[in-house]
Prior knowledge:
With 383 residues, this protein is α+β, with helices and mostly antiparallel strands. The protein folds into two domains: 7-53, 2-Layer Sandwich (Alpha-Beta Plaits); 59-383, no CATH class. The protein has helices spanning 15-19, 49-53, 77-82, 88-98, 125-128, 141-150, 161-171, 191-205, 243-249, 280-283, 301-310, 321-325, 341-349, 354-362, 366-382, and strands at 25-29, 35-39, 69-74, 102-108, 114-119, 155-159, 178-183, 209-216, 225-230, 234-238, 272-276, 294-298, 314-318. The strands form three sheets. The protein has an eight-stranded mixed β-sheet, sandwiched between helices. A three-stranded antiparallel β-sheet has the order 8-9-10, with no helix packed on it. Bound molecules: flavin-adenine dinucleotide and iron/sulfur cluster (3 copies). One iron/sulfur cluster (SF4) binds next to helix 7.
Amino acid sequence: MIEIKAKEDCCGCYACYNICPKECITMEADNEGFWYPKIDKDKCINCNLCEKVCPIINKPNSFLYKEKSYAVFNKNEKIRLESSSGGIFSILAEYVINNHGSVYGAAFDKDFNVKHIKITSLQDIELLRGSKYVQSRTNDIFKSIKFDLKNNKMVLFTGTPCQVAGLQSFLQKKYDNLILMDIVCHGVPSPLVWQQYIDELKQNYKQDIKSIYFRDKSTGWKTYSVKFLFDKDEYKNFGFKDIYMKGFLNDIYLRPSCYNCNFKGIERVSDITVADFWGIEKVLPKMDDDKGTSLIVIHSEKGKQLFDELSEKMILNEVNLNEAIKYNSSMIKSVKYNEKRNSFFAELNSGKELTDLIRIYTKISFEKRVKNKIKSIIKKLIR
Length: 383
Ligand SMILES: Cc1cc2nc3c(=O)[nH]c(=O)nc-3n(C[C@H](O)[C@H](O)[C@H](O)COP(=O)(O)OP(=O)(O)OC[C@H]3O[C@@H](n4cnc5c(N)ncnc54)[C@H](O)[C@@H]3O)c2cc1C
Ligand code: SF4
Ligand code: SF4
Ligand code: SF4
């Protein structure tokens, strides 16, 4: 039976919950808002299936297909602008739905919690489109995917690398009709912090929220904005200024497993990895018009065949992977643990207001600012 000794040893993928034959695992949120398995020991029959499928204990094999990687964007400009990077997810989703398949990915529910859902129609692709910077709950999705696969449906699953690994572990075998797409993942913020943030915004505006966009590109792709549409008004702020994004990018409230992630690297469990092609202006300037370009890395024969078949819908150029990941360290290494994380959560749980707290915890001291300035002057002089 699975036992979580340290929180960093669970990425919250739900594989154990989905596999348990006695349904004696529930997923419960801790005081930081992240879910962990809890076992009803009276019902447990010690079959050990939960341990067997845990991707942290038994990581599935990872691959890289002949070092094939590309700078890509969708030829459909509208979809590209609605997507976080180059809009490649939507091309894969359309293909699967046109082949009567199911697509699984992260969507907002009516209260703007993020969870994985299944879609089977083209108009629902927009529900999954766009990054949601909060951990997505997969609930019973893995069981639903297995059911679809066994009924010979084509399935596309998209998610974080740990969710993809969790699904592959749960399935325990390879399916020809399954396409796995993961993202390059900085880490996932706390669902508790996210809910408090939207509650505070709702209170400030005294209106209900109609929609939320983490990556609004009307201010550019590289200088994207976070946008909330309320009943009457709109909140829009640059990603680097929005207080929730600041806390996320300062790594104050990521899941503990994200600081020592088991799923980094150029080899992956997935067929295809999609990321923002940061640094495209240096690697391949002709692919940069600031509307969003994806970095695509292929990991399997299946991924390569699919990519080739769909390439007529894309503008693409092959790139050198080592060159590309110079600007995207999230592909290969975890973020550094933020030493202030514990005291942040302690203060949050004692009832302090969230936005004030994030402001305090992201403030750079005068000393650090001077050090950073000196570092950047030295860098410029060396160049
Ligand atoms: C939490 C998070 C961290 C990321 N960190 C980085 C990074 O450090 N560097 C980088 O280059 N790229 C990162 N990305 C990936 C990037 O933002 C784009 O999602 C990716 O480039 C795909 O873009 P697209 O234009 O093809 O499709 P889009 O339509 O933008 O992609 C949407 C896809 O992402 C999935 N998705 C959205 N939110 C979540 C979520 N919370 N959990 C699981 N899956 C989700 C959806 O299911 C959908 O399949 C991150 C994404 C997320 C969600
Ligand atoms: S050991 Fe078996 S029965 Fe017990 S919790 Fe794990 S999967 Fe469920
Ligand atoms: S299977 Fe997933 S949710 Fe369960 S313990 Fe392992 S990492 Fe955590
Ligand atoms: S950083 Fe690693 S552990 Fe955290 S969500 Fe991403 S893949 Fe999962």
